[in-house]
Amino acid sequence: MVLGNEHIYIFLMILPIVSFLYASVGHGGASGYLALMAVFSFAPGIMKPTALLLNLFVAAISFYYFYKEGYFNKRLFLYFAITSIPLAFIGGTIEVDATIYKKILAVLLLFATLKMLNVFGKESVTIKNVKLWQGLLVGGAIGFFSGLIGIGGGIILSPIILLLHWGNMKEAAAVSALFIWVNSASGLVGQLSSGVSIELESFLLVAIALIGGVFGGYFGSKKINNQKLRYVLSFVLLIACVKLFYT
Q1: Mean pLDDT, range 97-111, rounded to an integer
Q2: Alpha helices of 43-153 — where are they, by DSSP H?
Q3: CB 63 within 8 A of CB 178
């Protein structure tokens, strides 16, 4: 049961805030959803498909707004997506031991925390063209990991784009949003094909997450500074890291 947690109402109040913040930077929010579910002691078997389902809807909304503003770089996206889509499917078919899964997820959430705090991945004026082999290698690695853990991969892709100067902040957001969507869809299909099921209650979470996603995508594609809220979310991510490492 997704909604069986005794503190579910607190979870439901925080959920749209998480989706708002992630959508504002072109992300679906899976790492944030996974962090919340870890804090509220959701079962790993529910966490992965639920996070990917939420990703599908929130990332789609985010992409729509960034695409509408003209920030989408089709070539950059295709270079990453060619290998990420099939490898996300393969990753989604693999069942990871719950203990190992929690440790891997904790490391991922630490990475997500650093991204939220802008520790790395600063925007550059000089933009370089990504080579095909670079895009295929990076996309494939992130895609497989995304399907395995239950994320879309944007939290990893966007800082790489910025660190290697393959695009500016808005371009990274637009490319990451669609990248997240295709990987989430592929990973979720992989999970479903391996016997994983989605709780019907998860669709209620989708409706709630979309509230934050719509506003986040709209304001993020324009101009908005969410720094104070990012600090709050980073604190939640750190709590989840500690909980996952010691449970």
Answers
A1: 81
A2: 44-68, 74-93, 98-116, 132-149
A3: yes
